[in-house]
Amino acid sequence: MTDITAHPLQEITLDQQVALHTAATRLAEEFDGIYGTETIERFLQTSHDQFATAASIANFLPLLAERFARQRLRALARVEGHHRDGRPVVLFLCTHNAGRSQMALGFFTHLAGDQAIAWSGGSEPGIEVSPSATAAMTERGIDISEEFPKPWTDEVVRAADVVVTMGCGDLCLIFPGTRYENWTVDDPAGLDLADVRPIRDEIERRVRRLLDELNVPATR
């Protein structure tokens, strides 16, 4: 197996090496018959590299790399026609993937259940999801504390039926046949909980409207 743990900017512990190799094995089993070892390892390596310089998540690096690689591989499988189940896919994008897009993702997955798929990403991913955004969503019974800021990638954008942007400007990749929406929503970065609540509520209204337009009944 290729050494998927080498990275020039961060020491990789033995435990992390073991965890990454275990992740590669799990992904290979999950995508058996769709993608081979070389593709699995390449996606895990590049996903690992996306987070390797963020010191605050060092202990969770193998888990984040595996989760991100899995999302990207599922997106690629949709793009290449290996997996199509008829469910709409929505991608929420903002600058840091630390507030608006995470709250939108939280509402969408909470309300849609397994009737649709949602992902999120940022043009300049932050280090952690905004604590105020997390607290505001907790008030609504939605836990986004285990989410993490991440970039968007070519295959993730291409796999989406709808791309919702919130403040990421002209950086978003444009693909023919994809529906794009721009939501003008204030950035919760640096705001306290009281100031984030109106932003949260506006995002919920927009998510509910989007679900209705996609003919996906809200489960709550």
Automatic annotation (TrEMBL):
Annotated SMART domains: LMWPc (SM00226)
Source organism, top-level taxon: Bacteria
UniProt KW keywords: Arsenical resistance
Gene3D superfamilies: 3.40.50.2300, Corynebacterium glutamicum thioredoxin-dependent arsenate reductase, N-terminal domain
InterPro entries named among the record's database cross-references: Phosphatase-like_N (IPR048716), Ptyr_pPase (IPR023485), Ptyr_pPase_sf (IPR036196)
Any Pfam family matching the protein: Phosphatase-like_N
BP terms from Gene Ontology: response to arsenic-containing substance
Domain spans labelled Phosphotyrosine protein phosphatase I: 88-213
Name used for this protein in its record: Arsenate reductase ArsC
Gene source species: Micromonospora terminaliae
